[in-house]
Amino acid sequence: MLVLGIESSCDETGVALVETQGSAVPRLLSHALHSQIAMHQAYGGVVPELASRDHIRRVLPLTQSVLGESGRDLDEVDVVAYTRGPGLAGALLVGAGVACALGVALGKPVLGVHHLEGHLLSPFLSADPPEFPFVALLVSGGHTQLMAVEAVGRYEILGETIDDAAGEAFDKSAKLLGLPYPGGPWLAKLAEQGDSQAFKLPRPLLHSGDLDFSFAGLKTAVLTQARRLGDDLESRKSDLAASTQAAIVEVLLKKSLAALDRTGLGRLVVAGGVGANRSLREQLNAACARRNVRVHYPELALCTDNGAMIAMAAAMRMQAGLEAASARYAFDVKPRWPLDALPLAGAAA
Ligand code: ATP
Ligand code: MG
Ligand code: FE
Question: To which CATH superfamily is domain 131-297 assigned?
Fold first, then answer.
């Protein structure tokens, strides 16, 4: 079965083609991505109206290039999957509208996918896919959650952020340091030249005894340090970046290890944009190797938003019998949509 996946929840237009064969892990045939980062950079963040308009411009040409690259025709597609939420309403509507229009034109059913389930299952696109069950650390621009994952659709949230997400902490701190949007990768790059012990920054909720996170206070602490440095900020920027990254990474590391301890599971899956962070990967790899825990990540290019993870999540949900694609085409989008509200069985409208 051929699944075309369309992602348009925020500032990346992604399209991909995934093929399923029986119960084997679905295979990625091709994917294409257009990032709007350069367009939004002038504004220091995503401008929703511009995002929607750009998705409209990109989505069909990207679809054509994905088909061309895989050597498949549009009418070979069996199911059209799209991101139903969470995300920006106008941006989501572009992907949903195009997916349903393609579905109607082809006479093929469509399936709305949860964006976070896409991130969560994105490591299955890698050459060495994980096996269930595992602990998942989902660290993206808008979410930070630890989950016990038993199977596709069986997600128990063990802990989550009570305020900012890890990606937000990276981005907001980077902004305070005068780095471009989105700041995470820039801050990480700057941190490589800095001293991570130079500044004492808080590790919020590190010893809270639960698996929740809080990153809002960190941003305030970075602001305080930046103000204190005044004119010296420029020369100490890399030290402050390294100290900020170290604070975020330490909390993510310790809480992930605590989640492994609590569940007794021997496998960790990291997903979402912050999962691309090198320091986080190095520290998780080292700590997990000591404990004989296997760690899985998405390929670097598939950590942030992409169409492959949406096609993959749709394919895996259908394989698991959790959901059937629908030919009703009366679509809606869900800008706010907690992952644990996802139905375990039965098709969503
Ligand atoms: P969500 O999926 O929660 O709706 P999103 O789609 O914006 O949010 P992702 O695309 O998963 O999030 O990830 C984007 C985030 O990842 C941004 O906050 C970005 O700064 C961060 N990020 C990307 N690469 C790195 C890196 N190397 N180090 C730290 N953060 C990074
Ligand atoms: Mg993005
Ligand atoms: Fe995302």
Answer: ATPase, nucleotide binding domain (3.30.420.40)
**pLDDT tens-digit map of 29-59:** 999 999 999 999 999 999 999 999 999 999 9
Range list of H helices, the chain? 37-41, 48-70, 89-106, 115-121, 166-176, 183-191, 216-229, 233-263, 278-291, 307-319
Binding-site residues from annotation for Fe cation: 115, 119, 305
Cα distances (Å, whole numbers) of residue 12 to 140, 187, 224: 14, 20, 33
Which of these, 51, 10, 16, 48, lies nearest to 32 by C-alpha position?
16
Query: Is-above-0.90 flag for pTM?
Result: yes
What is the distance between the alpha carbons of residues 188 and 284, in angstroms, rounded to a whole number? 16
Is 80 exceeded by the pLDDT of residue 280? yes
| CA 141 to ligand 3 center in whole angstroms | 7
Give the ligand 1 atom nearest the CA of 184.
20
Does the interface ipTM go beyond 0.90?
Answer: yes
Report the residue among 189, 280, 304 best suited for mutation to probe ligand 1: largest number of ligand atoms under 8 A from its CB. Answer: 304
Q: Give me the residue label for tokens 């902004």.
A: 175
Whether residue 89 contacts residue 51, with contact meaning beta carbons closer than 8 Å, is answered with no
Start-to-end C-alpha separation, the chain = 22
Q: Is the domain 2-121+303-341 a CATH 3.40.50.12370 member?
A: no
User: Any residues with CB less than 8 A from the CB of 15 and at least 6 apart, and which?
Assistant: 4, 5, 6, 7, 31, 32, 33, 59, 62, 63, 65, 66, 307
User: Do residues 152 and 316 touch, judged by C-beta distance below 8 A?
Assistant: yes
Domain boundaries, the chain: 2-121+303-341, 131-297
pLDDT at 344: 65
